[in-house]
Amino acid sequence: MDVRRFDTAVYARRLATAMAATAESGLDGLVITPGYDLRYLLGSCAQTFERLTALVVPTCGDPTVIVPRLELASLKDSAVAELGLQVRDWVDGDDPYKLVTEALGAPPAATAVTDSTPALHLVPLTIMLEVLPVLATNVLRELRMVKEECEIDALCKAGAAIDRVHARVPEFLIPGRTEAEVADDIAEAIVAEGHSEVAFVIVGSGPHGADPHHGYTDRELGVGDIVVVDIGGTYGPGYHSDSTRTYSIGEPNADVAQQYSILQRAQHAAFEAVRPGVTAAQVDAAARDVLVEAGLGEHFVHRTGHGIGLSVHEEPYIVAGNDLPLQPGMAFSVEPGIYFPGKWGARIEDIVVVTEDGAEPLNTRPHGLAVVALPG
After folding, report:
1. Are 78 and 6 in contact (CB under 8 A)?
2. Cα atoms found within 13 Å of the Cα of residue 157, Cβ hemisphere only
3. Model's pTM, two decimal places?
4. Least buried of 55, 80, 132, 219, by fewest C-beta within 10 Å?
5. pLDDT, tens digit, for every residue of 118-168?
């Protein structure tokens, strides 16, 4: 999959910012192995194998890409050539970790590695450096958390595409069909509506809806089932959609309708709380307080949201204890849920982007409990 669809200037700016952030952190360099950070900085979708591939970013000197010669082709769909980066390839029998230390320059006192670096490479790299690297999370997270306009545009298109899928979901929810059959239809629709890949499909019917990360099974849908449908895909240059709506096959009973209406108020309260300067924890509290006041707090068993971008789950995390102030350009989910083990569950999820004075939702499907008409 070609994930590089931004101008070379975008990657040049990101790489320069990463170098500056590394220096400001008092580090001597970064070592970035395949994963979302490498995609972010170079547009590369190279994979991790037993042979080391890494982008080495020293604070003094030019970045270098270390790559096995037999994996050189993996760089063709990246911005490496356009950026004019030095590439040092190696063959079996060479020591790639020595190449990393050479690319870092003088013996580094403090080096950071991406959190996706496997132990297979981290251990020999540590031995070669003679110092234990730190995680680069604190260096790179600020870059990836605040989205650029091109990223927001990709997320907007992804959000619109998954909304089109949710608009089609009721036609799949027919009593007697299995969750797996519905999931297959949804997966086809995710691609048909513009995604390049399916990221995940959750179809939680009846008691399965009380498991937030259920997936799908051969359970048959029945009249009166509440069905949680949480779906997402990869769109354009590797950015993701993620949206949840809850459906009722036939009219719900009064208790379900009443409790769902409280969940709807909680989700709206969290969205209304989003604005620059408010902390992630305060947004979580906005949703949680509504549910606690209504006696449903114990049925909300997860955080209110997670960041989204090249990864479905990334920072910022909208959770109690996270005092990170929100900034314009941050993108994350707002998705409170209520779960009654053995009975039913419900969740409402939108992706939102923080604006200068509030938030913009990237999903616009109705939030109410969607009643699916019975056949006949």
Report:
1. no
2. 15
3. 0.94
4. 132
5. 999 999 999 999 989 999 988 888 899 999 999 999 999 999 999 999 999
